[in-house]
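=== RUN LOG ===
request id: a7f3
mode: sequence -> structure
chains: 1
length: 462
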Amino acid sequence: MTTLDTGLTLIRSAAGRVSAANGRLGNAFKSWMPTGLYARALLIMIVPMVILQTVVAGVFMERHYNTVTRRLSAAVVQDIAALIDVYKGYPQDKDRAQIRRIAQQRLNLVVDFLPPGDMPPPGPKPFFNLLDQSLSVSIGRQIGRPFWIDTVGNSNLIEIRIMIDDAVMRVFAQRSAAYASNSEIFLFWMVGTSSILLIVAVLFLRNQIKPILRLADAAESFGKGREAPNFRPRGAREVRRAAHAFLEMKARVERTIEQRTAMLAGVSHDLRTILTRFKLELALIGDSPELDAMRKDVDEMSGMLEDYLAFARGDSGENAQPTDMALALEELRSDAERDGHQTTVAFQGLPVVTVKPAAFKRCLANLVSNAARHAQTISINGRRDHRYLTVTIDDDGPGIPQAKREEVFKPFLRLDSARNQDEGGTGLGLAIARDIARSHGGDITLADSPIGGLRAIVRVPV
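=== RESULT ===
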C-alpha cells in the first residue's frame, strides 16, 4: 500500500466518522423538534424574531448603556473638576457661596464642603455597577484625587465625595444626568410590538393551518369508509389544489367501485335468470336421483353468485354510524352457540364505535363461521382504546401453516387441506372479511392462538 492509498484511507475513515457524528447530531436535534406543522411554523416565525430582537437589544445595550453612560458620567465629572478649579482659583470666597450658587444654578449640582478626613469607608458595589465603573474611571482620569461614590443610597441621586486640600467636597447629582435610564422604554416598545405582531401572526397562521387539518380529516374519514359532507377546498392556492386533487381521486375511486358493482350486478342478474329457468324446468320434469344432483348444483351456483356479488359490492351504499360492538359480539356468540359451539365473549373499553354496522358484522361473522367450521371452542375478545378497535377470534382447530396465512386471503383460493375447504365453498369468506376491514382503514392478520388453533385479529381505527 502506497502513501497515497494510506492517506486516502485515513481521509475516508475521518469522513465516515464526521458523517456518523453529523447523523447522530441531526437525530438528536430532530428528537427535540416538534412534529406538527403548526408548531414548526411557529418556530420558523419565533426563532428569527427572537434572534433579531436579541441582536438589536445587545447592540442597543452596548451602545446606549455603555457609550452613553460613559459620556454622561464624564460630563458630570467635568463639571465637578471645573468646580474644584474654581474653588482653588478663588480663595477669597471663604464661605464658598459662589461655588454653591454656580453649581446649583448652572450645573444642577448640590455642592457641600465637609471637614478634612470625613470620608466614609467604601460601600458594597451593586451587581450592575456600570455607573460606578464609569464614574470611577472618569474621576481617576480627570481629577486624580481620593474619592468616594455612592450610587445606591438614593435611587434618584448619586453622591460623590472628593478629597481636596483642606476639605472634602460632597456633590449630589441627578442619576439621570450621569446614567442612561430611559432604556426600559425602548425595551418595552420592542417587546410590546413584537408580542402584538406575534399574536397577529399566530392568528393568521392558524387560519392557514385549518384547511390542511380539514383536508387531513377528510382523507382519514375516507380511508375509514366514512363521509366528510362539509368538506370543500379552502385556504391558500396550494392547499385548495391539494383538496381538489383529493376530491377528484375520491370521485374516481367511488366511480370505479360503482362501475364494478354495477357490472357484476348485471352479470349476476343475467345468471340468476338462467338459474331460475333451470329450477323451473327441473321442477316440471319430476323427481329422480339425477335431478336431485342437478338441483344441488343449481343451488350451489346460486350461492356462488351471491358470494361473488357480495365480494364485488363490498360495503358500498352503507353509511358509518355509532355501533355497540359489545352487543354485536354477543350476537355472534349466540349464533355460534346455536350451531353447537362453545363460545366465550369479552369486551374492554367503550363499546360504541363508528363503523358500517352490517358490513362490519359480516366481516366478523365470516371469521367466526370459518373458526366454527373447523373447531369446537371459540373465544371472541374485543378491546377499544383511543386509537383502535381490536377484535380477536381464537379457536382450537387445526390452524393454518404460517407460510400460507397470507394466501388464504386471496379471492377464490381454497387450499387443499385448508380450514376454509367446505362443500360448495367459494373461497371468498376471508377475502370479503379483509376487504371490509380495509375499507374501514384497518386490516386482518392471522396468528397462532393460545388455545391451540388459529387467531384472527381485526384492527380498525376508531
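=== NOTES ===
The two ends are 64 Å apart (CA to CA).
The first helix runs from residue 3 to 32.
=== END ===
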